[in-house]
């Protein structure tokens, strides 16, 4: 894959070596965030063990971020794209 909608990310909130987190442009709940792997992969199940760990680490960080911002999403249902 050459380019995707996440290649030129703006407004990244959190980042680690293998993934980014940002708010969804069309949130379905307050604090709706996307956790996006830096490598192009078809879905979460194509992620390596290391990428899954990085994604899960950002998921935890994103939860803390939202709690500190006093944003309480109804659910964190989508943690990969
Ligand atoms: Zn891309």
For the structure shown, list the relevant keywords.
globular; 25% helix; 81 residues; alpha+beta; binds zinc ion; 3-stranded antiparallel β-sheet; 17% strand
Walk me through this protein's architecture.
It is a single chain. The protein is an alpha+beta fold and 81 residues long. The chain has a domain at 16-68. Helices cover 25% and strands 17% of the residues. It has one helix and three strands, in the order βββα. The chain has a three-stranded antiparallel beta sheet with strand order 1-2-3, with helices on one face. The model has no long low-confidence stretch (mean pLDDT 86). Residues 3-4, 6-7, 40 line the site of zinc ion (ZN).
Give the gist of this structure.
With 81 residues, the chain is of the alpha+beta class.
Sequence-ordered SSE layout with sheet pairings:
Layout: E1 12-15, E2 19-23, E3 33-37, H1 49-68
Antiparallel strand pairs: 1-2, 2-3
Helical amount: 10-25%
For the record, give the distance between the C-alpha atoms at the N and C termini, rounded to a whole number: 14 Å
Number of helices: 1
Cα-atom radius of gyration: 12 Å
Which overall shape is indicated by the principal axes computed on the Cα atoms? globular
């Amino acid at each position: 894959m050459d380019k995707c909608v996440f290649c030129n990310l703006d407004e990244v909130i959190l980042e680690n070596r293998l993934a980014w987190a940002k708010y969804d442009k069309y949130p379905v709940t307050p604090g709706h965030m996307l956790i996006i792997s830096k490598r192009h992969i078809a879905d979460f199940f194509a992620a390596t063990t290391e990428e899954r760990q990085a994604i899960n680490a950002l998921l935890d960080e994103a939860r803390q971020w939202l709690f500190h911002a006093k944003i309480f999403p109804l659910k964190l249902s989508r943690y990969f794209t």
